């Protein structure tokens, strides 16, 4: 939904084109009025400036998620002035809704979450708004039409990521006809929808690219492996796996090797994330190209929370900048890679 922007700013970005949409009316209104009325009754009034934050995480499905959780937990610490209540929704929307309701009941100062899927959030976000608790989205988007239901959304441009993958495939592999199988992320999740769209956009003009099969592997290594086993049974002419994350690509590697084929050679692999295990497989030649998705959202989240609680204006959309890696670039980057 935010993907039409091509703006790419740094994490601390100043100029995201959409950022101007951080309308004074909605963000400072939601932040100051709601935040301070909540503070009066919540723990913000008691222990000085401690900000209580309820964070509902998607789950623990991938290396990316582990790095993202660590970044949030390492940043929203007591030393930094936060009281973090963290819950893992195990990739279930109902668990996230339950967690958000519990944060509302506890009267936290701010709620932050990474929505497992895009749709179905309006009712619970409206409840948070009525309770005067500002909400910040991290990582994944919601498809709510009413953008006063949240203060800000920090995360990557997933359509752009899919386009970067598709452009590389089109330029480097599809100089002759290739059959592609796609391992999609969680059905209904913003990164699954957008990475699919981006890849299709970028390869639409290249008649050499044919997507012969596409199924969800739910962003996990185990499901990526199982789905790839099915693809290998159904098709004997697969040239490329496009996986929406490294973990599913790593699962596909296992399936390809078990079938007696050589990943990266007999069947090429392109993924998204660039977490350590994926980068190692790229350096080893088992994956051919990775588009990065930066999971280190903690510092930006902390910054936005402080501003919202202080009643300052915040950018409605903060676009995280991503890079991409070839094998040579992965070998160079690995020794100093943070995640
Ligand atoms: O790419 C994947 C994780 O939402 C960007 O979720 C995130 C995605 C990430 O499971 O590995």
Automatic annotation (TrEMBL):
CDD domains assigned: PBP1_galactofuranose_YtfQ-like (cd06309)
Residues making up the signal peptide according to the UniProt record: 1-24
Compartments it resides in: Cell envelope
Keywords assigned: Signal
Main localisation: other
Positions of region (Disordered): 29-52
Domain of life the protein comes from: Bacteria
SUPFAM superfamilies (UniProt xref): Periplasmic binding protein-like I (SSF53822)
GO cellular component: cell envelope
Domain Periplasmic binding protein: 54-312
GO MF annotations in UniProt: carbohydrate binding
InterPro entries given in the database record: Peripla_BP_I, SBP_2_dom
Family: Belongs to the bacterial solute-binding protein 2 family.
Protein name: ABC transporter substrate-binding protein
């Amino acid at each position: 939904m935010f993907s039409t922007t091509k703006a790419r700013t740094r994490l601390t970005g100043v100029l995201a084109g959409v950022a101007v949409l951080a309308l004074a009316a909605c963000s400072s209104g939601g932040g100051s009025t709601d935040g301070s009325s909540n503070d009066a009754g919540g723990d913000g009034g008691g222990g000085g400036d401690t900000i209580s934050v309820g964070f509902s995480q998607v789950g623990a499905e991938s290396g990316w998620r582990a790095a993202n959780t660590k970044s949030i937990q390492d940043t929203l610490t007591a030393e930094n002035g936060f009281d973090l209540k963290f819950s893992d929704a195990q990739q279930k929307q109902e668990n996230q809704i339950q967690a958000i309701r519990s944060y509302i009941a506890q009267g936290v100062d701010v709620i932050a979450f990474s929505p497992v899927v895009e749709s179905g959030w309006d009712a619970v976000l409206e409840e948070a708004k009525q309770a005067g608790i500002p909400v910040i989205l991290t990582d994944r988007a919601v498809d709510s039409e009413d953008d006063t239901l949240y203060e800000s959304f920090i995360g990557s441009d997933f359509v752009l990521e899919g386009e970067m993958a598709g452009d590389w495939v089109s330029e480097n592999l599809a100089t002759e006809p290739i059959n592609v199988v796609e391992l999609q992320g969680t059905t209904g999740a913003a990164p699954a929808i957008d990475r699919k769209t981006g890849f299709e956009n970028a390869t639409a003009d290249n008649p050499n690219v044919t997507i012969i099969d596409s199924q969800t592997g739910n962003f996990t290594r185990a499901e990526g492996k199982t789905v790839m086993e099915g693809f290998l049974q159904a098709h004997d002419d697969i040239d490329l796996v496009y996986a929406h994350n490294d973990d599913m690509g790593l699962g596909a590697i296992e399936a390809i090797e078990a079938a007696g084929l050589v990943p990266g050679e007999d069947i090429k692999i392109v993924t998204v994330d660039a977490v350590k295990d994926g980068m190692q497989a790229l350096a080893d030649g088992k994956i051919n190209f990775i588009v990065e998705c930066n999971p280190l959202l903690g510092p930006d989240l902390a910054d936005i929370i402080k501003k919202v609680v202080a009643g300052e204006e915040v950018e409605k959309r903060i676009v995280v900048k991503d890079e991409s890696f070839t094998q040579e670039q992965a070998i160079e980057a690995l020794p100093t890679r943070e995640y």
